From TrEMBL:
This is RidA family protein. It comes from the Bacteria. PANTHER family: BLR7761 PROTEIN (PTHR43857), YJGH FAMILY PROTEIN (PTHR43857:SF1). InterPro entries: RutC-like_sf, YjgF/YER057c/UK114. Gene3D superfamilies: RutC-like. It comes from Streptomyces albidoflavus. Residues 103-135 are annotated as: Disordered.
Length: 252
């Protein structure tokens, strides 16, 4: 919130493709409607048309009027649009998301990729061995742009560990698996927003931190370290879970 008590609200209006095309087209470019619309003291900061997808509008408004604007938008979109709200200072990530969804839609014959339409999709990688038995768990799930990963470790699948067994090497191998799954989901490591690290000896936290520096180039993700009595196999000393948002890291 700025010093004058205002906030920026980015609104993504996605076309409801079940509506009549003429209705969508007649509404798409009607900036005059937006200029009439903002209730209360809201004003338009930016307005972008994403052809074939919808509109992105950033409004500046008093913080205490944000609920009023949300309600009015939901009620006033005439059923042509599905609204999504982003209380943010920057609409560029929303625009990038639209461009990606548009490309996926065009490539896939108009059908959204599973996980992008609000349904969950499982993600696997050839670099990460599957569960011991089918149906036990998923390594990673994606809903929209958000991904969650199961705990990754250096286990060899036979009760032992890969590599030299040190905390540093186990952490590096766990993060290598995290990286493979994040990339399979369409992201990069800097899209990871949160790590949860489980250690059987909290004194190993420095070695885990050393391994972590090899995988992130931007701001480091949030991180929680927890000491536990044991992991799934006796030889394991490190396990790492990850969560994040695809496209949240700056792209160069």
């Amino acid at each position: 919130m700025s010093s004058d008590g205002t906030v920026l609200l980015t609104v993504l209006l996605k076309h409801d493709q079940s509506q009549n095309l003429d209705q969508i087209q007649s509404t798409l470019g009607e900036r005059a409607w937006w200029e009439r619309f903002p209730p209360g003291d809201a004003e338009i900061v930016s307005w972008v048309v994403a052809m074939g997808i919808g509109q992105i509008v950033t409004l500046r408004l008093p913080a205490d009027q944000i609920n009023l604007v949300n309600v009015e938008l939901e009620r006033s979109a005439w059923g042509v649009f599905r609204t999504e709200f982003y209380p943010t200072y920057d609409f560029v990530p929303v625009r990038e998301r639209l461009a990606r969804e548009w490309g996926e839609s065009r490539a896939g014959g108009g059908e959204p990729e599973p996980g992008r339409d609000g349904t969950a999709r499982a993600v696997d990688s050839e670099e990460v061995a599957g569960p011991p038995r089918p149906g036990m768990f998923s390594h990673a799930k994606v809903v929209g742009d958000r991904f969650s990963l199961s705990g990754m470790h250096a286990g060899d699948g036979r009760g032992g560990v890969l590599g030299d067994g040190s905390a540093y090497d186990q952490a590096r191998r766990a993060l290598t698996k995290v990286k493979a799954l994040v990339e399979a989901a369409g992201g990069v490591m800097d899209d990871v927003q949160n790590l949860r690290v489980y250690l059987t000896d909290i004194q190993d936290k420095g070695e885990v931190g050393r391994a972590r520096t090899e995988f992130f180039t931007g701001d480091f993700p949030c991180s929680t370290l927890v000491e536990v009595s044991a992991l799934v196999e006796p030889a394991l000393t490190v396990e790492i879970e990850a969560e994040g948002v695809i496209g949240s890291a700056p792209r160069t």
